[in-house]
Amino acid sequence: MAAADATFGLYLRPGSGPTFGGQLAAYPPKMETPSPEYLAEVDAWHAARDRRLRSPESWVALTALHWLTPGAHELGQHPSAAIRLEGHDVPPLAGHLLVGDDLEATIRPHHEARLTHDGEKVAGELPLADDTDGNPTIVELGSLRMHLIRRGAHRDRLALRIRDTNAPALAAFEGIPHFPIDAAWRVTAGLERGAEGATVAVPDIVGDVLQEPSPGSVVLTLEGQQHRLRALEEDENRLWLIFADATNGTETYAAGRFLVTEPVEDDGSVVVDFNLTYNMPCVFSPFATCPLPPEGNRLPIRVTAGEMLPTWTDGWQPTSAPAPASVEPAAD
C-alpha cells in the first residue's frame, strides 16, 4: 500500500516521511520544551503540506470518480454521455473509454476533441495505465486531468478519477489549522514485531477490505496509559499509522488521521511525533478512496496534535460522494 504524498499513487502518504530529510531525527526523542529549531521545522512541514494542497494536482482539485464496467463509455459534456465531463473547454462528445473484460482500458478521442497526453494530441487509441505503480497515464482535456485508479481486495475495481485545474474547491480552500505544537506528543515507542508475513485487515471508505503487510504493533504511552496501534510498512524503515481518536468528528476528520514515524531503530524503538499527524485525502474531497483505521487502532483519548479539519471560504464544504456504483456501457 506504499505511496507518496505526490499527485498519484494508491493512497498517497508522505513517502519521504515527516522528518524533513532526516533533520528532525537529530532532535532528542523526548523534549521537555520544544526548541525554536524544532518549532520552525514542524511549521515548515505544515506550510509545505498547505502549498501542495493548493496545487491543481492535489486532492482538493478532485471533481469526479466514475466506477467502470467492461464496454465502451462515451465521455463528454452532453447530458447523455455515460461519463459526464464538466470543465472549461470540454466538448459535448470528447471520445470513448474502452474497457475490456480484463479491465484493461484505452481511450479513443472524438475527431474534433483535443485530448492530450504529455502535451501531445492523442491520435487513435491510447492505452491507459492505472495508478497501481503510482505512475498512471494522465489525459488532459481543457481544464480536466483524468486517470484510472484500480481498487479492491483483488484489484478488480476500475474507476476514472478526474481533477479540474479550475475546481471550485481550490478557490474555496483556506488551509489546514493545526493544534499548537506540543513536545509532549513526541514520544519514543517500541515496535512489538509480529510474525513474519503477518498482515492486517485495512478497510477503506468505499467498502473494500485489504490484507496489508504489517511489521507489528507500535506500543506507546500517552497520558499515563499504554496503547497499541497496528502499523503498516513505510519506506526507509518507517511505519505508517492509521488511527482514530476522541477528537474525530469535532476538531478532526471523523474517520481518523495518518502519521508516519521516524525510522525504527535496531532495538525496536521508534519516535512517534503526533505533531506531524495529517488528514486523510477524503477530508478534502468525496472522490478519494481512503483507507480507514484497522480494528483496534482507536485511541480512547484526545490527540490534540497535528492537523485539524480544513477550513473553506464562506462555509463551503466538499459535496457528498455518490455511492460507488458502476458506469454501464452505452447501448449499441
What does this protein structure show overall?
It is a single chain. With 332 residues, this protein is mainly beta. The protein is built from 2 helices and 23 strands. Strands 20-13-16-17-18-19-21 form a 7-stranded antiparallel beta sheet, with no helix packed on it. A 5-stranded mixed beta sheet has the order 9-10-11-1-23, with no helix packed on it. A 5-stranded mixed beta sheet has the order 3-2-4-5-8, with no helix packed on it. A hairpin with a 2-residue loop joins strand 9 (139-141) and strand 10. The chain is globular. The protein starts with 35 loop residues before the first helix and ends in a 5-residue tail after the last strand.
Q: What is shown here, in short?
A:
The chain has helices spanning 36-53, 168-172, and strands at residues 62-68, 71-76, 83-84, 95-99, 105-109, 116-117, 120-121, 126-128, 139-141, 144-151, 157-164, 173-175, 186-193, 199-203, 209-213, 216-222, 225-233, 239-243, 257-260, 269-273, 278-279, 311-312, 326-327. By secondary structure, it is mainly beta. The strands form 6 sheets. It has a 7-stranded antiparallel sheet, with no helix packed on it. Strands 9-10-11-1-23 form a 5-stranded mixed sheet, with no helix packed on it.
Number of discrete helical segments: 2
- Amount of helix: under 10%
H/E series: HEEEEEEEEEEEHEEEEEEEEEEEE
Strand segment tally:
23
Question: How far do the termini sit from each other?
Answer: 39 Å
- Which structural class is indicated by helix and strand composition? mainly beta
- The average pLDDT value, as a whole number, equals 88
Radius of gyration: 21 Å
Strand numbers in spatial order across the main sheet: 20-13-16-17-18-19-21
Any low-confidence stretches, pLDDT <50, length ≥5?
A: 2-28, 321-332
- Biggest β-sheet, characterized? 7 strands, antiparallel
Shape: globular
In terms of DSSP E residues, the strand content is: 25-35%
